[in-house]
Amino acid sequence: MAADEKTEEATPRRKQKEREKGNIPRSQDMNSALALSVAIGLFIAFAPRIMEKLQNMLRYAFTNINPATINTDSLSAIVNPYFSFFTGAVFPFVVTLFLVTALVIFTQVGPMFASEKLKPKFDKLSPMNILNNAKKQLNPFEPKNLMEFAKSIAKMIAVFIAGFSVISARKDALLGLLGASPETGFAVLSSVLVQMALAICAILLLIGYIDKKYQVYEFNKSIKMTKSEVKDEWKNTEGDPQVKAKIKSAQMRFAQQKMVAAIPTADVVVTNPTHYAVAIKYDRTKSAAPLVVAKGVDYLAFKIREIAENNKIPIVENKPLAQALYKLVPVEGAIPAELYVAVAEVLAWVYNKNKSGVR
After folding, report:
1. For the segment 124-149, what is each residue's pLDDT rounded down to a tens digit?
2. Which of 106, 184, 217, 290 could form a disulfide with 180 if both were Cys (CB 3.0 to 4.6 A apart)?
């Protein structure tokens, strides 16, 4: 397998970068189907209002317009009533359609502002680039063009089947319109058209859903990464492991140096006797409980004992206490309540020893 072969799924950071550039999986078929469904649904909801306004406009036209009294010099006086009727009927429908369609598409895309898309890209205006794009668009064997052609054929077939199935199911009602009143004919035709529109919307939504899944698959495939790209991105995000190891090592050395510098200020060192060593300091004016100022095992424990001996700090051998202090108390941490008694006994022994002058 080639090292530069893109076999790895895109990381969340890579997907976020693509989104910032405005590159997200989009399904034009899904958006179109949603927009058409919203438009038909709103039209059905607004139909009574639109029909009422239309009837009022026709009633006004046939009852208030007299050709003999029309003033051709004032065109606005003639147009304004019709414009008022039209806006009253259509404007609420158009505004609601725009807002609902924008909301539906927003739910598909989510909040996104890609400033990258606003930047002018003059390289796309080069003749060679334009020619290459034209070849791709006009090439019938281009995979993308083949897919779009297949979807167009599928949509035409689906729409024809949906329309034909509705007409076939309602053919008796349609044949019964012969000789029926205009009101009855209009009601039946409206019912058939609404049923046909809903069936077509259902088919287009299904095609849009399938296309949406396909677009997501193609998008995820297009942004796949190589193993080295994933590794580099992980380094950039989390930090180079070697650098992090060096930083951690430097932090440990600094902590050890700080700890070693605090050993001469300790009141006592508790050992077990060789593997563990814990230095304790108690200053009533600074803390309510004794503090562990240094601790270590093996070599570091040996260094703690050595520094304590050089600074004439008492060393007490208490295996259980040394192990408990090492495991339970961090450096510069306070002694827990369950160890108060044992530590108090050690400190009392140290204080009595100092008072007696014993070394």
Report:
1. 555 666 666 666 666 666 667 777 77
2. 184
Rounded alpha-carbon distances, angstroms, from residue 126 to 120, 130, 164: 13, 6, 49
Structural domains of the chain, with CATH: 12-234 (no CATH), 244-356 (3.40.1690.10)
Distances (CA, A) of 169 to 158, 163, 165, 173, 198: 16, 10, 6, 9, 14
Q: Maximum distance among all alpha carbons in the chain?
A: 133
Indicate whether 331 pLDDT > 60: yes
Model-wide pTM > 0.85: no
The C-alpha atoms of residue 262 and residue 332 are separated, in whole angstroms, by: 10
Alpha-carbon gap, residue 86 to 80, rounded angstroms: 10
Measured distance CA(323)–CA(335) in Å, rounded:
13
d(CA 322, CA 339): 11
Cα 181 to Cα 6, 84, 175, 185, 190: the distances in Å are: 68, 31, 13, 6, 14
Q: Which two tokens stand for residue 90?
A: 């259509």
Report d(CA 108, CA 102) in Å as an integer. Answer: 10
Place of tokens 């400190």: 347
Q: Which helix (H) or strand (E) holds 9?
A: none
Rg (alpha carbons) of the chain, rounded to whole number: 42
Report how far residue 159's alpha carbon sits from residue 138's, in angstroms, rounded to the nearest whole number. 26
Q: Which residues pair with 269 in a beta bridge?
A: 279, 315
Task: Locate all alpha helices (DSSP H) within the chain, ordered by sequence.
Answer: 12-20, 28-64, 75-109, 127-138, 143-169, 171-175, 182-222, 227-238, 241-262, 299-310, 319-328, 340-356
Structure tokens belonging to residue 284: 């009533």
